[in-house]
Structures are given as C-alpha cells and as structure tokens.
Design brief:
Blueprint lengths: L2 H30 L3 E4 L8 E4 L5 E4 L6 H9 L6 E6 L5 H4 L2 H7 L1 E7 L7 H13 L2 E4 L4 E5 L2 E7 L19 E5 L4 E4 L5 H11 L15 E3 L11 H7 L3 E4 L11 H9 L3 E4 H4 L2 E3 L1
Length: about 280
C-alpha cells in the first residue's frame, strides 16, 4: 500500500475516534443535567444515586462493601470522580460499609449523617475515612427542607419530637427518612425504618387518621423500608403513602428479606414491586 494511503487511513481512524470521543463527552454532559434516581444493585444493602438537574449528585448509602464502586462506575462517566453529597441514613454496615471505599475513590463535598455512632472497629474506620476526606459534615436530627435545583428534599426523621417508644440504641428507627419531589416525580426514602417510626410519622403528619390523608408522606415511588422486612411496611403506612411502585433494595441474605407477608401487603395495596436482586439497577426519572 502506498505510503500516502496509509497516512490517510490513519488520519481517518484518528478523526473517527476523536469524533466518537467528542460525542461521548457531549452526551455525558447532556445527561449530567437530567434528573434521575438510580437504585443500585449492591447486594443485601442500600445504595441510591440521585442526580439533580443542576449537575449535582447525592449518594444515599453505599451498601456493605466495594461493590458500590462497580455500580458507580457503570452509572457515572469514567472521568467523574466527585460526589456533592454523601448521605448515610444510619450506622448499619449494609448502609455505610461501602462508603469507606467511596471516600477513598471520590471527592466528597458534604457528608450527611444522623448523628448516631456504632461502637465497633469498622465504624471507627469509617469515621477515620470521613476525617481524612475533610468534607463539610451535616447532621440531620430535626425536620428540615432543602432545595437542590428544581427538587425539594423534606427530611422527616430523625425528629426528637416523635414518640416511638424505642431505645436510643435503636439504629433503624433513627434512620434519616426524607421525601424527594420535583415537578414530575416523588419518592419516599425510608432506609431501615420500622413500624415504630412509621406510626410516629402517621401520628404527626396525617391530617385525618380515618382516611389516612398524609400529604407529607405521599409519594409515587416508595423505597420499601428495611429491605422488605416484616418489621416494616405496615398496612396503615402503605395506605398513607399511596405509592404506585415500591423499590426493594435486597440481595442474597439469611434474614428472609423480603418477607412474604410484606410482599402480600404491597400487592393488596396495589403497589407494583421492583427488586434489585431481580432487576439489577433500577432507574427512575
């Protein structure tokens, strides 16, 4: 083959590759400003990535181990190594364990916690990783409202005024619970909330306990509490939320999650169910 033809072929390959790379970056930049919520398949645990339409990102929990890194790698562009908010709902390993690896591999601007600690060596390791990150620390221990781009986050728990009848060491019922809404969608994030917290929220936010009119709790998408455990998802709570769909973040486990009893309750409430152990990552816009 003549030398000039080889040069032309190489130039054409370089041009096509360059155009492909430019197209990739262009598409990624467009998608960066689209609102989406990705319930990530991290096995038996919780991890959800919220991408707001101003380009900011919030990771809610990280699962229990390094699997979160592969899920983020599949969801975010390879060059995106920054997360604006890391929200850890409560100090259970299947919610914060993978956050240690996230802190080591991503730049985190703000870390949101519920103020409760775990007395074990692994949680101390997590706290050291937080200290090394040098991010802003925000403690949620009372109801408050955030605005991020066109979205509103209403934090409902922890709330010291709620009457739950549980001990201070009850990790699940002091989970950060919040409602996320925008013009087209609504989500209720429940972490490992159980019935004591569910009932306390019903007592506080329901306008009518007979009709379960609770606008503060209503959401199209419910992140089903505690991986579908039968300690959560009470019938009255499901009536109040009025969810059309429920996302169960779950993996192989010995706890019986999700409970058949809860699955039947969701079915009776006409909630369409999606499970990360069956569907993989579940994305909503």
């Amino acid at each position: 083959m003549p030398k000039h033809k080889k040069i032309l072929i190489i130039a054409a390959i370089i041009l096509v590759a360059s155009l492909g790379l430019l197209a990739y970056f262009f598409i990624q930049e467009i998608q960066k400003y689209e609102f989406r919520v990705s319930f990530l398949d991290v096995g038996q645990g919780d991890a959800t990535l919220i991408q707001f339409n101003n380009g900011e990102q919030m990771l809610v929990d990280c699962g229990k181990d390094r699997k979160i890194l592969s899920r983020l790698g599949q969801t975010l562009p390879f060059y995106d190594r920054s997360i604006d908010y890391l929200l850890v709902t409560h100090p259970d390993l299947d919610h914060y364990g993978g956050c240690i690896d996230v802190l080591r591999n991503y730049t985190i601007k703000q870390i949101v916690l519920n103020g409760h600690r775990k007395q074990d060596l692994f949680y101390e390791k997590f706290e050291h990783a937080i200290k090394d990150e040098g991010a802003i620390i925000k403690i949620i221990n009372t109801p408050e409202v955030w605005k991020i781009a066109s979205s509103t986050l209403e934090f409902l728990s922890p709330d010291q005024t709620l009457m739950m009848g549980v001990g201070a060491d009850d990790s699940n019922n002091y989970s950060i619970v919040f409602r996320l809404t925008n013009a087209t969608s609504s989500f209720l994030f429940t972490a490992d909330m159980e019935m004591p917290l569910e009932n306390a929220l019903l007592n506080k936010y329901c306008i009518s306990t007979s009709t379960f009119s609770c606008p503060a709790l209503e959401a199209y998408t419910l992140k089903v509490g505690h991986h579908g455990s039968d300690t959560s998802s009470g019938e009255n709570f499901l009536k109040a939320v009025k969810a059309e769909e429920g996302i169960i973040s779950v993996g192989k486990n010995t706890y019986g999650h999700p409970s058949l009893r809860v699955l039947h309750k969701l079915e009776r409430a006409k909630v369409k169910m999606f499970r990360t152990d069956q569907a993989g990552d579940i994305v909503r816009f």
